Amino acid sequence: MKYVIIGNSAAGIGAVQGIREADKDGQIVIISDEKYHTYSRPLISYLLKGRVTEESMIYRPLSFYEDNKVDTMLGIRAVSVDSASKNVLLEDGSKVSYDKLLIAAGSKPFVPPMEGLDNVKDKFSFMKLDDVKAIEKTVKQGSKVLIVGAGLIGLKAAEALEHYGAQMTVIDLADRILPSILDKEASDIMQAHIESKGVRFILGTSVKKFGENSAELNNGETVDFDFVILAVGVRPNTELAESAGGSVNRGIETDTRQAVKGVTDIYAAGDCTKSFDISAGTERILAILPNAFMQGNVAGRNMAGKESYYLNAIPMNAIGFFGLHIITAGSYDGEVYCEKDGSNYKKLFTKDNSLKGFILMGNKIERAGIYTSMIKEHIALDETDFEMLKKNPMLMAFSRARRNEKLAGGVGND
Amino acid sequence: MKRVYVNEDWCLGCHLCEFYCAFANSGETDMSKAFKLGRNAAPRIRIEEGDGINFAVSCRHCQDPACVKGCIAGALSINNGVIEINKDKCVGCYTCVLSCPYGCIVIDPQNDGMTVTKCELCTRNNAGEPACAANCPNRAIVYEERGEA
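Above: the input entities. Below: the structure tokens describing the complete assembly.
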């Protein structure tokens, strides 16, 4: 059996581990357009600020490929998939045949058309190791930086650039920061916190026109900069699945075994796919690392003939900015329980006798996984002491039977 | 493999397991030094106290662990069944805190929360075997083989 994996990040690595649970000997080939040993994408901001090194940010040990008998083709791009002849076509014209294929091609920066952007010499995305290497060549102590996008990527870049004493302005078309993971109240707390570190926000507006070292905004202001970080958003890489004849609707569509709909022997996982969010009951793109790994892991098992299903995807994020931490999960829909004390903030959302989502900040984050498990396992609230759980997530609040099951177990959990 | 199990009927809620855990992992040989020098020795086991019920909770060392799978840094790994944390790789994002259904990942006060810490069954300190079980006065915590599911 020959397994080919396009992508060398969390989903691809999860697939290697999944395949090797069931098939110790089949040939595995990883193809990636990046030339590096597998590294952690979300750690690039920690690299830029010097918290980790290129050596310490590897996602799996240097012996990983050898230990798992993986052949790598790094630094070469896969351009299309011929599902009839079962070949992957590479940018140099060569072909790689497969018996089972995983598309774990990730996502790419979305840069909307902006007038004059071509005039800007120093502009960067912030998604890959090479982006950091390029920024490191340009950034100086006290650089003036314009960050376009007040989402996770833009603000992680801001946190890293503070290390250089950068003078930062963040703009966003939305009227608040981090709208994908926070509600308005939590956005305001985090915005005030980041502003206290010297970052300036200009919200509810966009760039009208770029000059070489300045941007004219639609609200009439002008912002000077030495360089620009473009962090407006990301889009799934779906071209490979499309070329294979697979089903794509914004993201690649898969079944719960991670098999791509409309084709055979092709699987997909990670930021290029759509997931079924069980907290909202809808399909959406969940571009987060744990989801990528788990999808890849399930895909790998199925590719190797070990039946496995991914049935409990939810949005979930744990991230800090300038020392203030956030843990969020699920959907912000239903009845609200809220605690607020300065930067410490908790909001729980309940509906239909279950916990649907939560936002925790500051000192309210401990043991958050107990809440996460309640969403994922659809634990009925009337089976718990929810008054106790609201205040502190604890196993005590579950029924004795469920508690004993949890404490005796722990042998399997995802 | 051998695991730490608790019996809530026998737990007195005395918190000795927390002290012995923190001490075993403090690197100190003198208990008073471990706790008196302001080093924030942190237990990796936690007593939950309720109305007439107490029990200790620590890492279950899951076979298919959500914390390891979700770790963004590759800092959590399984070594002979024991889930270990590599603090040189951990960036303190707390995705594992978000993921652990037992609430057993501890934000490490010894590192000002810059990393997490967790039970490693005393395999990486000098205790020899889990200090929580060894020092529980009422055998409410045991370290034993019960077979895997």
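Note for the figure: DSSP finds eleven helices and 27 strands in chain A.
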